[in-house]
Amino acid sequence: MSAPQLKLTYFDGAGRAEVARLLFAFGSVNFVDERVTGEEFAALKPTLPLGQLPTLTVDGTVYSQSMAIMRYAAKMSGLFPEDPVQALRVDMISESLIELVNAMVNILFMEKDETVKAEKTKKLVEEAIPKTFGVLESFVQGKFFLGDDKPSYADVQLFDLVENGLKARLPEASVAAFPKLEAVMENVKANAHIAAYLAKHKKD
Questions:
Q1: Which CATH number goes with the domain that contains 40?
Q2: The total number of structural domains that make up the chain
Q3: Residue 173 burial by Cβ neighbours in a 10 Å radius (0-12, 13-18, 19+)
Q4: Name one Pfam family in it (predicted).
Q5: Which domain holds residue 30?
Q6: Same domain (yes/no): 67, 156
Q7: How far is CA 169 from the centre of its chain?
Q8: If pLDDT is split at 50, 70 and 90, which confidence band does 203 have?
Q9: Which of 12, 50, 57, 204 has the most CB atoms around it within 10 Å of its CB?
Q10: Helix segments in 6-113, DSSP class H
Q11: How many CB atoms lie within 10 A of CB 50?
């Protein structure tokens, strides 16, 4: 069976498509990385299944929902465990990271009251993020969450959250107190295909 023709469509930024892009890169999966402007999205919107981005076009059929796309990318890249218990473990870690991402989005982009935003941001940085990272630190088994030779999509999710989320939006939050998580990030970054992708899309 020939490889499917893939096109990932999103804006020219990390956002909700970057994990899928990184997963495809990690697994050296060929895909068209289509990046659209707001104006182009407005024209596309009526044609999209759910009227939103990102979308993944697989052999001409368009699919939506960033988490569904992420898991598909993980499977295509060999980063979704075949063992059901290992998959359960990775999904558990993934959901924990998604909770942090959603909390960040709700506070930084949805909260309009600046005083409330500051209070919620402080609580997120000082309580929620360290608590979650502390738990995830205990889940690391070697180079990655599942072991030295078992990278998974959760490892890539962590990398994206820290690199494109915390460092960009909440620099006061850090993984410095969690050496195992830092090591996971470095091991993701050490992947030759990831390194090439990052170099290609490095912002000046």
A1: 3.40.30.10
A2: 2
A3: buried
A4: GST_C_3
A5: 6-78
A6: no
A7: 15
A8: low
A9: 57
A10: 18-26, 38-44, 66-76, 84-105
A11: 11
Q: Which residues are registered as beta bridge partners of 57?
A: 7, 62
Is 1 a member of any domain?
no
The token pair at 143 is: 């180079």
**Quick one: average pLDDT of 128-136?**
97
DSSP for residue 45? G
Whether residue 61 is found in the same domain as residue 121: no
Q: What is the pLDDT of residues 50-68, one digit of tens each?
A: 999 999 999 999 999 999 9
| Structure letter (DSSP) for residue 141 | B
